[in-house]
Amino acid sequence: MPRLLLPTLFCLLIGPLNSVFAQGSLQFNQVLLVSTASTVPANKVWKIEALAYNGGAPFASGANSYNHVFNGNRGFDGIARFLINGSPVVLPVAYLTNTFNATSSVNPNFTFPMWLPAGSILTPQTNISYLSIIEFNVVP
User: Fold this and answer.
1) Which of 36, 37, 118, 139 has a CA-to-CA distance to 12 between 20 and 30 Å?
2) Domain range list for the chain
3) Residue 87: is it exposed, middle or buried by C-beta count within 10 angstroms (0-12/13-18/19+)?
4) How far apart, in whole angstroms, are the C-alpha atoms of residue 123 and residue 121?
């Protein structure tokens, strides 16, 4: 019987502390494609998953046209930029394809996802068609 008493007392003492530190749970709400300045609504959080890159200067090796089929490398490099609460997030982006494979990369020091709390202002800017967002409800 004493073996059961200690775990029970522990749960009774620690259990209420859990609710003191809890901030609610997340419940999926919707997927968004953000292309203009947008504010995270109250009682929501946004998870930035990815961006649609629409810029950069094409480069080619072995052909004079980016769309031309050839044996060699082609692709683009540039930056993608968006603002969070007026502060810039700048991502170098590169895409390279050849006859065997295609690769793309962003700055290794920045990785998605990125979480934004309610009230945050997200503004896509340079070379971004949209940011792919998952919106969650904060459930108390």
Assistant:
1) 139
2) 24-139
3) exposed
4) 7
The pLDDT of residue 108 is 46
Q: CA-based angle 138:15:18, to the nearest 5?
A: 35
Rounded CA-CA distance 124/76 in Å is 20
What are the structure tokens assigned to 136, written together? 């969650």
Dihedral sign, Cα of residue 118, residue 120, residue 121, residue 124: negative
Place of tokens 């390279």: 96
Q: What's the pTM?
A: 0.64
b vs e for 31-62, b when ≥16 Cβ sit within 10 Å of the residue's Cβ? ebebeeebebeeebbbbbeebebeebeeebee
Using alpha carbons, select from 64, 56, 36 the residue that is nearest to residue 131.
36
> Would you write out the chain's pLDDT as a tens digit for each of its 140 residues?
455 555 554 455 555 554 445 568 999 999 999 999 999 999 999 999 988 888 755 444 444 444 433 344 445 567 888 999 999 988 877 655 554 554 444 444 466 899 999 999 999 998 889 999 999 999 99
Tokens of 120: 């945050």
